[in-house]
Amino acid sequence: MNITELARKLKTSTQELREKIPQLGFDVGEKAIQVDDKIAEKIIQVWKDYQEQEKLKSISQKIEIQDQLKEKKAEAKADQPPVSLPKVITVNDLADRLNLSVVKVISELMRNGIMATINDNIDFETAAIIVEDLGFRVTEQSLEEKKIRKINAKDLIAQHLDQNLSSKTPVVTIMGHIDHGKTTLLDAIRKTHVTQSEQGGITQHISAYQVEKKNKLITFIDTPGHAAFKKMRSRGGTIADIAILIVAAEEGLKPQTMESIKIIQEENLMMLVAINKVDKPEANVDQVKKQLSEINLTPEDWGGKTICVPISAKTGQGIDDLLDMILLIVDMEKEKIMADPNGPVLGTIIEAHLDKNEGPQAIVLIQSGTLKKNDIVLVNQGSGKIKSLKLTNGQEIEQALPGTPVKILGLKNTPQAGDILEKIDDKKDLKKRKKIKQQETFEQILSIKNKTTEESSDRINLNLVLKADVMGSLEAVEEAINKLEHPKIKINIIKRGLGQINETDILRAEVKHGHVFGFNTQISTSADLLAKNKNIPVKNFGIIYELIDEIKDCMNKLIQPEFKTIETGQLKVLKIFRQEAKQTILGGQVVSGKIEKGNRCLILRDQKEIGLGKVSKIQKSQQDIPQANAGEECGLQFEGKTQIQPDDILRAFKEVEQEKNTIQ
Ligand code: GDP
Questions:
Q1: CA separation, residue 451 to residues 18, 233, 442, 477, 610 (Å)
Q2: What's phi and psi for 651, nearest 5 deg?
Q3: CB of 223 sitting under 6 A from ligand 1
Q4: Per residue in 324-335, is it b (16+ CB within 10 Å) or e — as a string?
Q5: Distance 315 CA to ligand 1 centre (A)
Q6: Tell me: the pLDDT tens digits for 224-270?
Q7: Phi/psi of residue 362, each to 5°?
Q8: Which of 106-115, 384-393, 543-552, 643-652 has the lowest mean pLDDT?
Q9: Is 12 in the pocket of ligand 1 (CB under 6 A)?
Q10: Is pLDDT of 64 > 60?
Q11: What is the mean pLDDT of the chain?
Q12: How many helices (H) and strands (E) are present in the chain, helices listed first?
């Protein structure tokens, strides 16, 4: 082949090719015009590797130079205080903190493969890289700032605990397995015990209402779906005081019943059990009580402490008893159902929507303080001035005390269920607080569950670097990953960020022996090359469940097989042929199961254990055999110090691999 043709094939110049050929280990002569076809083929093969090596070299040089630059810049700015960064920051705020133009920050982000606009949020990891690239030092937001941001309903209420607490309206929620009758019961109580106000009737299902029984109020709330409920919990505990655990009498305890019990216990709620659907012929109340006893929730009438009320949400049977029982619990646990009506005004949004005529409407459950008309409030990142307060039956009121669910008008934005409402006393404080709220929200989105790190250390770590196109995807992927649980595997997200997968991601994964997962993003060419060279697994997905399946696969590969010791059989010693210090040759009969070569065994004399050893050989008619079965007589070589005698029993054991407890 002509050398110019070869150079064209390799997309290089003839001169470069001539220079490189000897370096690649070929000798074609300095001025050769022709190259042997076979040699040309070999050069083509080697050239590819050579180019990749060159690229890698230039990448590591680039990284080295970048590091040196960073160091230099860091030295130069060492006298400046480090930039404190929160978990999430907008591009605009980041530029502010760095005292740089937004354009500069955006272009630095672009250099790292992140397309962000001025108001986009970027996470700490990404921001930290950019900030360091720009030559600043970084610290995570100071503890002091964190303290302010962490304030939630519970903390605020706790700060006022020693204030003037008085009884509040108890808040009751109903929890249980799907189809066990939660909605029917909520509706049945509402229909029979709520009087419609003149101002507005209740026509449809509502997420909160109050009933009056024996001149006492009880608030019922419908805790929306599990996800929103979890959010409420993460924002400061559940908002209920009492939980009714509903169990269908014909079905008994189900997985979601167990999950509900777990939540009720974790949240320390007072509980009573409504055994529902007793009108059904197949209802079996005793069976439910038995199941409850089995999990340490023994019913009162069985000698335990759990209050159980048989009811039919459909016919109304037992509902009055249920309400009486709630009042009884409230009476018994008075000191637990308290709040300060003069304390900070705090509540949780139960339901919200945008009304075409009236604007954002929300039902808020007041947990502390007294909310009044004209109060200025902050909900999540939005604010407002309370224009009207109504009970959920439509009755207009001037103020709402703790434990009251109220419909409010006057918010500028529509909040979400689970958001916290706070009354702001100082108007000037509003702007500052809004910013804090914004941080708080995103911090929760990004928060890693520390739970796993507290758990046992004998778990194998699966370290992941996660990259996604936008914050929403990253959040969704993390949420799905957080649901993957296995007692033997601990998933650590060692780095998360937005934008394309870059060299830093690969290097981070390398240090921690991790995997890199992208969602709706790409990998830069240099990162791809680096990953291949360093053998770092990198995968990109466009569908969450495919990504999750891949992670499950990785988890399953990490699960080590477990072994269990089982007894294989027993042999009665009939005769001793030879006895040495550490070995005995004996004759015996297998009395049960089988004895296998290699079994470990326990020696029993008069049913007492007298020693341990191993079966190293089994013989029958002077032939070695792998095992002897029940009824068979055999010769046996026993390794062990025990002085065995006739009539001793050998119990043989072996270790068997158990089926792996994989994640499906
Ligand atoms: P949820 O998923 O727990 O909210 O359950 P629902 O309230 O939607 O009830 C599920 C189904 O059970 C519906 O068809 C109800 O009509 C029915 N149901 C609820 N309570 C009772 C009851 O006490 N007796 C009977 N026979 N059916 C009931």
A1: 61, 15, 19, 18, 46
A2: -100, 120
A3: no
A4: ebbeebbeeeee
A5: 11
A6: 544 445 555 544 446 889 999 999 999 999 988 888 898 888 778 89
A7: -145, 150
A8: 106-115
A9: no
A10: yes
A11: 81
A12: 19, 33
| 293 CB within 6 A, ligand 1 | no
CB of 177 shorter than 6 A to ligand 1:
no
Chain length of the chain: 664
C-beta 254 within 6 A of ligand 1? no
**Would you call 546 helix, strand, or coil by DSSP?**
helix
Q: Are 527 and 499 in contact (CB under 8 A)?
A: no
Q: What is the pLDDT of residues 460-498, one digit of tens each?
A: 889 999 998 877 788 888 888 988 988 888 898 888 888
Distance CA 255, CA 180 (A): 12
Ligand 1, atom 11, residue with closest C-alpha: 179
Tell me if 126 sits within 8 A of 114, measured CB to CB: yes
Inform me whether the pLDDT recorded for 156 exceeds 70: no
Cβ(277) to ligand 1 under 6 A? yes
Distances (CA, A) of 90 to 9, 159, 185, 391: 48, 31, 46, 39
Ligand 1: does its nearest atom lie under 6 Å from the Cβ of 180?
yes
pLDDT at residue 17, as a whole number: 84
Locate the ligand 1 atom nearest the alpha carbon of residue 313 and give its number: 23
Query: Exposed/middle/buried for 1, CB within 10 Å: 0-12, 13-18, 19+?
Result: middle
Instruction: Please identify which residue in the block is written with the tokens 């002077």.
Output: 622
Residue 328 carries which side chain, given as an amino acid letter?
Answer: L
- Ligand 1 centroid–CA 317 distance in Å is 14
Query: Taking Cα atoms as reference points, which of 517, 515, 462, 468 lies closest to residue 492?
Result: 462
Q: Mean pLDDT across the stretch 104-126? A: 78
Look at residue 232 in the predicted model and tell me its pLDDT.
Answer: 55
pLDDT at position 401? 95
